[in-house]
TrEMBL record:
InterPro entries: AB_hydrolase_fold (IPR029058), Hydrolase_4 (IPR022742), MAG_DAG_Lipase (IPR051044)
Gene3D superfamilies the record matches: alpha/beta hydrolase
Domain of life: Bacteria
Protein name: Lysophospholipase
Lineage start: Bacteria, Bacillati, Bacillota, Clostridia, Lachnospirales
């Protein structure tokens, strides 16, 4: 039987208790875990939304672990902290906490292969992580990412900085939210809800739309942190810091607006191609943003599992 455990650690902000969830394989089937898979979740969600994927991997011998990022899920002091990262250097906080979790888990499972997967905003956390801490990993899976034009990201950062000066770091701007997400449904016929772009699975979309932890507005601080991450991971000098021998799997849906329907994903892939020796790209037809919640999610799970096992056998 899979064991699901919860724990916590103190964030790099030195005040927030970071919520951690771990899925462990059946000890009667596995004397020791096959590997560890750490997950970085996306924006305006929480780690427990990956329960199905985590159980799939745990059933195959993996220890799966992830934390609620600062400003998400249970990693808040009060509800006012939802969508808020950290007063200073918000762009580095999430990767720092993710690395702290890696260090803790490696102490529990020394010598076990260690993989990191990140989705959406978590893909940018992951891409920052491998610039700073790539030496910790045996492989990385980047899901639902993008490579937005630098002028557009910089303009968004300037807007967030201006709003911050006028309204403060904790202000929740509907204008910035509309600019970020307002056109994401534009290619979908017969739109039902504002979040149809997430997945074709209507039950998942409805559950997302009904949740307190999936419907809050981001603070200006959160947007600043996200923009800083996006700008950080695209700089050639930071990409050069990634270990050349770190294998990467990049996967996305061809109907995902975050990846510009494949175009942005190709640009992200090309930014690493030539530096990382082993990088694979998979694009899934008809799939939207949340691959692990898509109608064909089992296919996605199998792809990730197969890729990891293939690289462990090399």
């Amino acid at each position: 039987m899979i064991k699901k455990k919860s724990n916590s650690f103190l964030s790099c902000d030195r005040k927030t208790s970071v919520n951690v969830v771990m899925w462990c394989p059946d000890e009667t089937e596995y004397d020791e875990p096959v590997a560890v898979l750490q997950i970085c979740h996306g924006m305006i969600e929480y780690i427990d939304r990956y329960d199905g994927f985590a159980r799939y991997m745990a059933e195959r011998g993996f220890v799966v672990v992830g934390n609620d990022h600062l400003g998400h899920g249970k990693s808040v002091c009060t509800d006012d902290d939802l969508g808020f990262f950290k007063d200073k250097n918000p762009g580095e906080a999430l990767a720092k906490d993710a690395h702290h979790l890696t260090v803790l888990i490696k102490k529990m499972y020394p010598g076990i292969p260690y993989y990191l997967a990140g989705h959406s905003m978590g893909s940018f956390v992951t891409r920052r992580y491998i610039c700073d801490y790539g030496y910790e990993l045996d492989g990385v899976i980047v899901m639902g990412t993008g490579h937005q034009p630098a002028p557009m990201v910089f303009a968004g950062k300037v807007l967030a900085d201006v709003v911050r000066l006028i309204k403060g770091d904790r202000y929740r701007s509907r204008l910035i939210s509309k600019i970020m997400f307002g056109n994401y449904n534009k290619r979908i016929k017969n739109v039902r809800t504002v979040n149809d772009w997430l997945t074709r699975d209507e039950a998942v979309v409805d559950e997302y739309n009904a949740g307190k932890l999936t419907t809050f507005l981001f603070t200006v601080n959160g947007y600043r942190g996200l923009m800083n991450m996006i700008l950080y991971v695209r700089k050639p000098r930071n990409i050069e810091r990634i270990p050349k021998n770190l294998p990467m799997l990049m996967i996305s849906g061809l109907d995902d607006p975050v990846g510009e329907y494949g175009k942005g994903v190709y640009r992200a892939y090309n930014s690493y191609h030539g530096h990382i020796d082993d990088i694979d790209l998979r694009l899934y037809e008809d799939c939207r943003h949340e691959l692990c919640n898509e109608l064909n999610k089992e296919e996605i799970y199998e792809e990730i599992y197969g890729w990891i096992m293939n690289h462990m056998s090399k």
